[in-house]
Amino acid sequence: MSLLVGPVRERELAEALRIDRASGLHPWSSSDLRKCAVDPKWLLLGARSEAAPRLAGFALALLLPPEAELHKIAVLKRFQRKGVATALLEAVLVRARAAGCHSCILEARSENRAALELYARFGFQKVLVRSDYYRNPDDHAWVMRVDMKSEGRTG
Questions:
Q1: Which positions ≥6 away from 67 have C-beta within 8 Å?
Q2: DSSP 27
Q3: Strand partners, 64
């Protein structure tokens, strides 16, 4: 599938919110997502299929050089396992590096194997486990980090 990744536009915010809610796990509020969309410290990227230019997924990251924090990648179910999350993560890391970030951290549910495999392909390593961190469903959080000082994609 051919994808276009770029900033989520104002008119796409409602669509991003629907994707976030459909993910089923702790969606962001409309007001918080809107604030992130206009705050230059936040990166809100959307992935669109060239065939149907509606959002297939989005990523949300906080850029605080020298470190970036990946807060969310959410992809519509029908686009999962089609490279959307990979394209979004790659775009976040490229833009974070361009903004002067040398590392990126994230938290992931220990049971979310697909996400953990994706992050590992990009060089993220587990640095900490937060036991019983998540609720509904209960789960541990893996805190993961990647060093982005070296050039090039590892995924």
A1: 101, 102, 103, 104, 105
A2: P
A3: 67
